[in-house]
Structures are given as structure tokens and as C-alpha cells.
Amino acid sequence: MRSDTERLADAADNDGRLVESRKLSKQLDKLQETLHRIRSAPPPRRERDRKELEATIKIAEAEIENALKIPADDVQSSADQRKKLKRLRRSLAALDQRIRFSAVLNKKLPKKGIYIGIDLGGTNAQMAAVSSRGETLASKKVVIAGIKDPAQVTEILASEVRALVEEAGREWQEVAGVGIGAAGTIDFENGVVIFAPNLNWRDVPVRALLQEKLQVPVTLDNDVNACTLGEWALGAGQDYQTLVGIFWGTGIGGGLIVNGELIRGANGMAAEVGHMVIDPSGPKCGCGNQGCMEGIAGRRSITRDLRAAIQAGEQTVLTDLVGKNPKIIRSGDLREAVERNDKLTLRILKNAAAAVGLGIANIANLVDPEAFILGGGVVEALGEWIVREAAAAARKDIISADRRELIVLPAAIGDNAGALGGAILAMQNS
Ligand SMILES: [Zn+2]
User: Fold this and answer.
1) 246 alpha carbon – ligand 1 mean position (Å)
2) Radius of gyration, alpha carbons of the chain
3) How many angstroms separate the alpha carbon of residue 32 from the centre of ligand 1?
4) From the CA of 283, how far away is ligand 1's center (Å)?
5) pLDDT digits over 218-239, tens only?
6) Which of 252, 185, 251, 197 is CA-nearest to residue 221?
7) Stretch (H or E) spanning 261
8) Which residue(s) pair with 373 in the sheet?
9) Are β-strands 371-375 and 243-248 bridged in parallel, bridged antiparallel, or unpaired?
């Protein structure tokens, strides 16, 4: 039998450890906050503070080593701490990688100047002026609906870009480059839009047209590549060097960054994730193939499936919201139906998320990226819920799910990703 004194001594000892372990948890939280703050600073700032950051990383690592030596009495709190440690270690590694990268990036980039990014769609162009430090100086949306003539469209872009620089309170002489992301098939090397269905353009030399009007270097790429660059440099992907962007809207497009470099492929067709075949016997896709991710899960396909079910007489709150024969089902309607736990809407959206998830699993098995960033209209409408659904589906299909961490994050800069990415494109290529 143990004496009371022994028991009391044990209890005191346990209390001591518990206090110590709580203290450690708090320290870890604080460290995580500090890291988050440093990560959010613009790259040049990070570069300047590099030495200080390296010291912080060393201290943090020493703390982690100490933390691992603390006996794990309280099972739950020790499990929590292990998770925190794991996250912290990953953040530290990513931060260190990022600092090294921004040092490289900064050497390549001019220290001065401003860059213009343009996200050119079929009905409007979103544009942004960005400093070489990555700060947005001004941004706006320009409506080009109904105008299809390339000379006219580039004329509008040119004059709006000049106005934007003025709105930012800067001089045109400061503009070091313009980057455009356009929806469609792009010849990156030659700056030509090979085919843009929503503008009905074929073989339009956009780079040459704009360069002539603006007299600054112009870079042209696919809009989804630009969005991926934007999210990577200034949005949700800042912690990662190998990531995949999936932009899930009317169509589904993708972008692939490996070791900090955008991969375009031999024919500029890399990362066409929307046309990965998910189900060979699935519905026909706009590209002519059957069972593409886009043909199952794209916004148009979601509407198609909902309409078919409504017309077949299935019970759904959507009939209250959009009637019995809806032409369009707005994002707000989808969101409300999900919030009201509508069986039909949930089934069709989960089916779409499963298709995207299967695509994510396939890409993960091929590329093994650090993270996936999910953006686009569907994700903006339905938020983190649909991201979680797709991630959960992916985890079911991925190999070695228990040994790897599949990180799937919602995009962070929304509508502006393409324009900001265009500016990054200009920084990298001007
Ligand atoms: Zn397709």
C-alpha cells in the first residue's frame, strides 16, 4: 500500500506536469501566431527579416525538442500537443522554404516598378495594379459584354489600364509589365489566344496588340494558370511550393506549380483537370468526351442534374425557390437549399464533390503536391462545406491515406485571383 504522502507527492508531480504541459501548449499557440504573422508579411519584408526569422526557427525547434521530452501523462492533451507540434514543424519547414524562395525571387525581380494584371473573361475584365512588393494598389472590373472585336477589346483594355494606373496615383513610366490571363487555349510562347470560345476568338495575337498600344512588356497565359499563380503568391497557397489549383465554376480548370514553377506542359495543356475522365460511362462533356470531371461536377452539370430531378417530380425546397421549371439556379438558391438540408441538392452536390475528390486523389497519386487550392464560383457559393466534401471523397480514393496528409484549402482571394496572378505573371516574365 502506498502512503498518503506518496500519493500526495504523485498528485503534486502530476499537477506540475499538467501545468507545464499547458504552458507548453500556450507557447506553441503563440509561436504559431508569430509564424502566421511573419508569413503574411510581403516577400521583401520577409527577405529583410530573414536572419531574425532563422533565429526564431532555431528557438522554435529547440522548444519542440524540449516539448517532446515532457512525459505524456494526460493522453488527450499530449495528443493535441503532438498535433500542434506536427503543424508547427510543417509551418516552419514551409516558412524556411518560402524565405529561401523569396530571396531567389527577389534577385530575379526588379525592386521597383508596378505590374498590371488582367483577368480577361467573356463579359468583363478584372484588373489590378500591384507593387513589386505584392501590394494591390488599385483594382477594378471593366465590362466588355457584347464587344468581340479583338482590336476593340484590346483598345478598351489599354485605356482602362492607363486609367487604373492613374487611379492608383502612379505614373505610367513606373509600369514594368502587364500580365493577362485569358480563358481559352493559349500559346504562351507567342502570346496568342489560339481559341477563346466565350470571346469567339481564334488565333488572336493579344500580346502584340496590347504591347503596341502600351509600349511595355506584355505576357499572356491561360486564366486558370494566372489564378493559380495568384493564390500561390498572394493567397491560400503561400506556404507551399508544390501545389495544384482547381477552379470549379461553370467549367473546371486547373493549374500546377511544382517547386515554385508553373508547369505549362509541352503543348500548354498541362493541368486540364476538368477533362480528366472520372467515369467513362458518365455524361457527355462540352469537350466531346464522356464522364469528364467537368461533365459531372461543373456548374452547368449541377444545374442540369437538379433540373432533371425537379422535372421528374422529386421533392425539393428548390421548387419553392426557383419554381418547377427553372432555367437558372442561382448560387444563393443552392446555398439556401444546402442550409435547409435539402435531400436532392445535397445528393447532387455530394455526387459532384465525389467526382472532384476522385480527380484530386488521382492528381495526388501522380504529383503528390503539398496542397490543393479549391476556388471558383461553386466553391465561392458553397464555401468550406463543399471543399470538405471533396477532400473527404479524395481521402477515400488516395493511396497511403494514413501516411500522408492531404491538404485541401479554399481559395483566399476570390474574384481577384486572376488579376493578381496576371501581375505575378508579369513580374516573372517582364
Ligand atoms: Zn471534357
Assistant:
1) 15
2) 25
3) 42
4) 10
5) 999 999 999 999 999 888 888 7
6) 185
7) strand 261-262
8) 245, 409
9) parallel
Measure the CA–CA gap between 94 and 13, rounded to whole angstroms.
Answer: 37
How many angstroms does the Cα of residue 344 sit away from the middle of ligand 1? 25
Q: How many Å lie between the centroid of ligand 1 and the Cα of residue 252?
A: 9
Answer yes or no: is pLDDT of 107 > 60. no
Instruction: Find the 5 Cα to ligand 1 centroid distance in Å.
Output: 75
Alpha carbon 266 to chain centroid, angstroms: 24
Distance between first and last Cα of the chain: 80
- From the CA of 249, how far away is ligand 1's center (Å)? 14
Question: How many Å lie between the centroid of ligand 1 and the Cα of residue 166?
Answer: 42
Q: 361 near 398, Cβ under 8 Å?
A: yes
Phi, psi of 369 (to 5 degrees): -75, 165
Nearest to 95 by CA among 42, 53, 64: 53
CA of 296 to the centre of ligand 1 (A): 9
In tens, the pLDDT along 393-426 reads 999 988 877 667 889 999 999 889 999 999 999 9
Q: What distance in angstroms lies between residue 262's CA and the mean position of ligand 1's atoms? A: 22
